[in-house]
Hints:
Helix content: over 70%
Radius of gyration: 38 Å
Order of helices and strands: HHH
Distance between the termini: 117 Å
Strand content: under 5%
Number of strands: 0
Amino acid sequence: MVIRCYNMSMHKVISFFREVKAEFKNITWPKKDTLIQLTIVVISISIIISLILGGFDYIFTQSIGLLSNVKNQSPTPTEVQSLENSTIALPTAASTAGQIKK
Length: 102
């Protein structure tokens, strides 16, 4: 019984591929010139859409960045760096050793 089920399933697979082969004979393939023209159309439309979406992404990213800067009013990286570099030197005993106190 196992052998018979295997034969039936193999028969279905073989039958399927025969039908596929018969259907491939009915396909009308486009000419080379038509294929090249349609490929150029698809590539150019893809480039145009990617440029449009990239532009919208840039605009939205910049506008959200501006809105978050207005709300937070956080210092810019150059301001933070200048604050880190500006240290106040306090007088030490060694720097005031030669001075006369009044």
